[in-house]
Amino acid sequence: MESTSNNNVSLVHQRHPSFSLRSAVAAVITSGLVAVSAAPAAQAQEQAPAKRSASQALMEEVVVSARKREESIQDVPLAVSAYGSDQLEALKVRDLSNLSVAMPNVSLDDAGSAKGYANFSIRGLGINSSIISIDPTVGVFVDGVYMGLSSGLVFDMFDIESVEVLRGPQGILFGRNVTGGAVLLNTKKPGDEFEMSVRAAVDGGDEGGGLNRYAMASVGGPLTDTFAAKFTAYLNEDDGWFENDYNGEDFGELRQTMYRGVGVWTPTDDLEIILRAEHSETDGDGPAAQSHTNGSGVPGTPVNNDRDSFDFSIDEHGFSETETNSASMEVNLDVGFGDGTITNIIGWRAYDADTLGDIDSQPAWLFHSSTWLESEQFSEELRYTGTFGNATVTTGVYYFNMDADYHERRNLLGALTGNAVPFRVADGGGYYSVETMAVFGAVDYQLTDRLTLTTGLRYTREEKEAQIASMIANVSGVGLPGSSCNLVSPSSGESKCNTDFEDDDSWTSVSPKLGFTYQLGDTTLLYTHWTRGFRSGGYNLRNTSPDPADVPGPFDEEQVDNYEVGFKADFERGRLNAAVFYNDVSDMQREINRGVGPLGVIQVVRNTADADIWGIEMDGVLSITDNLVLNASVGWLNAEYTSIQYDISGDGNIDSEDKSLDLPRAPEWTYSVGMTHELEIGDWGSMATRVSYAYRDESAYTDDNLGYIMEQDIVNAGIDFYSNDGHWQFGIYGRNLLNEVKHGGDTQLSATVGSGTFAPLSKGRVYGAEVQYNF
Description:
Blueprint lengths: L10 H5 L4 H18 L16 H6 L3 E2 L6 E2 L7 E5 H6 L15 E5 L7 E5 L2 E2 L11 E5 L2 E2 L13 E8 L13 E7 L7 E10 L6 E12 L4 E12 L3 E3 L4 E3 L2 E15 L2 E14 L4 E2 L28 E17 L4 E19 L8 E22 L2 E22 L11 E23 L4 E19 L5 E3 L23 E21 L2 E12 L22 E14 L2 E21 L7 E24 L2 E17 L11 H4 L9 E13 L3 E12 L2 E2 L7 E2 L2 E12 L4 E8 L11 E2 L8 E4 L5 E9 L1
Parallel strand pairs: 7-10
Antiparallel strand pairs: 1-2, 3-9, 4-5, 5-6, 7-8, 9-10, 11-12, 11-40, 12-13, 13-16, 14-15, 16-17, 17-19, 18-39, 19-20, 20-21, 21-22, 22-23, 23-24, 23-25, 24-26, 26-27, 27-28, 28-29, 29-30, 30-31, 31-32, 32-33, 33-36, 34-35, 36-37, 37-40, 38-39
């Protein structure tokens, strides 16, 4: 949830410090990246030691599937950041949010309003919403299966083979709703030999007194000549990093369990069948909600906290309970036709969640909210990849179906009844379904030994249906007739809400791509392409506006045309990648939040504007010595509106004031630099020391710029000890050592519920230790 008020100038620029220091630091990092290309060839790399090391892990090229076939990241003519399993382990990545401030022009944030809700943004294209019917700009794919909901995604990262972050629209091979990019999570398969690993870790901070404990294990290998299996278990018990000023208790408790099984059957040399199943549950506290002075200058009442602090005081502890069950089957059949492979991936996922949160962020009952969600999705992709002379062809068909039932209840102004019951109750939500069918094809044709032409096209038809109960039409409470209702899980005495809006609509789109790749040398390439992506039109299941004109849909689809030029190079001791891009965004689809009205905040979804976003990205890694590795990245964005179709500022006019606002979730600068050093320690083993710094600029959060996300300076460090026999690993680590405050959002609240903000806090400084044993 978010909101706006009536200011008409960009407060982001007013609050922002001088860019001189930031520009200087960015210039230093850029110089360091360029230095990769100047690494003298005379520094011939010595033969790698037999033992695996952290520096080797960071230097290795990750195998990616960005073009639906396995290849080195350096051979893919796309802007991709990727982490292999050894790199994720070396960096102590627990979930995707640990990578949030680490890649150029990428923000992988947890919304904070509910546990594990992905609120990702790439190249200035992101959402500021937890409304399930609003499709993300960044698609998340797990083992090739698209996740139709952003819920339940920012959790465990144990036993992951790789994480790939594709920047820019990926509408040809990955479909709609990836206008910003795609995040690909690939879990590990069983190896050719028996493997078993156990890991335990504990960490905590200096705000609350609670500890966070992890226990993880995986075991797998061949069971017969043709069948291998792997089983993974994960347990996380967090007593709470925060302290609630309301009662002095630790806050942020979370218990998560996850079990995953993978089976691989290869009955012949040409056929592979992969079965995956996963079950996970979470049970934890509600959001650590902070109220601070909002963008209109109105403080929270009765408590107003310092924005740059972890202080918060809430009387509703809240909770978040989720259950996820998923299964998939992947079949890979090698065929003689084009020496190709036919792949079929069938995926199913059911996700249920119940939550309760203190949205007023106050030690008084002003605005508490409960949600119920039940969802189920099914998808199937059948594709073929083969080579015919100079042409590599990928083509296929895709089907996706999802049903979701959602209910939200706002329990308002309980303080007026002495906290006995809410003074007002507003119920709403809806039933939502989506069905997608697509056909796609892409061809990489080698025109010469060095020049390759890439063409692609995807046709998509999507149908959506919604039955919505508007909150303003389902208000009950003291002195009002009727009682509360529930669309998903009515309790005793409750009925199912009557829906007052019902509609269905369909959209079709054609997503083309045209590009060229030129091989400058054996390890250096230059690429350019134009590609188009779409984000689906749809409906707003959180219809909270009292204005009858604010119907919950349908809003139209969003279109993004991306023009990009990129460079990739491998050198004797490193690699350097760079890209320059321009995005032309039409009919930008946004959730507009306003901190007004009796329900605390209203949300409407509209196609608000057209915009231009262009930028520069560089990232690279350099082995300074055999034992010292430097990695760095820098990204710069320039995002601005070109035309306005909606009153974004909320001042009642569509004019230059709207056009001058900053685009939400589009920080101007993102950069990082890190060092890893490896040291042999006698006959026992080695020690790896790492330290990194990452920066992300301040950015607008709400469209009227009243809500914003502060800049981030993130310092992480750690020391790991590896035994020479490969069995033992010990480590100590620290994340966010500067104790930077980060909010998942910055919702502006109305005076009815105390003004101020709903700004869920993320953890600050964390220290930890872990031990791992490999059998």
